[in-house]
Amino acid sequence: MRYLEAYDLISTALMSGNLPFPTTEPLIAQFFDDHVINVSLRCSQKVNSEELTPSATNIAFTNSDIQSNKFASQVFKVERTDSNGNKVGVPFIPESAVLTGNDDTIAHLGYYLKTDISRGDMLVTTLFAAADTIYNTLTVKSTAHGLDVGDYVILSEVLSAGGAPVPANQVYYDEFVNQKRFEVLTTADADTFTVLVTSDATVAAALAADTISGKWVEDTKKIYFNKSTSNTVTVYYYALPEAKNSNKTKIDLPDQLITAAMHYTFADIYFLTSNLELGGPHRNLANSIEEEFMKINRSKEAMQDILPAPLQDFI
Known about the structure:
The chain is built from eight helices and 14 strands. By secondary structure, the chain is of the alpha+beta class.
């Protein structure tokens, strides 16, 4: 099933609910798309891994399917490769349990997950470079930004600026830059960093030499360790479902679980109106569908992510 058919089915079913607001496609998509990801991580669970080589106490994930808002629930196992080439398990520890001290006082390596967050302003001298097919390098001017290459930022409140603003291009800023997430490519100095904006050939040509202003928020997903390590670390995680490129994209879930995501969506929309009588049964039905799927399809699989951390370490 494609997203388009799912939206149509949900919209048609909600017509009989006498809702006090229109159930537009963007509203349905906001709830349904998120439930597709959540249901996939709970039930479908496609396993992937990433090898990282930290040089201190933290390192950013680079795979796009773990650099997401769900990353803390995706990771289920971490291993390090010791000096003899053997894989050794690294246990999870809550950040609140990490002790302050030097590495000599910490006996065992442990990990926790964290999103680095900082904020700053994009000055009016922020500039789009000339188009390179569908790409523009955006050079962001921001005083003492504190970012490193490989960090991620979300740009917002983007407006035309500078000595010769181009307000006509605001629609392009909103579509391809505003509220979008970018990787930091270079940091020429403490007040400058660059990101790559992807659009199409027409838009890229129009953006060339534009100056803008706005704000940025760092959004870097990292694995942290309680002591410095230089060992190669392998992080095992549940990959996100295939990304939705358009409404015609096929939903990357088994049909049974698509139905569960739809019922979660019904529940959320009814809950917006405090209609627990209609929303509750949909939520319960979605939970039952997930439980049935797990019993039939995953009853004999090991699911380390639901075991308490000490038991993981023991196994």
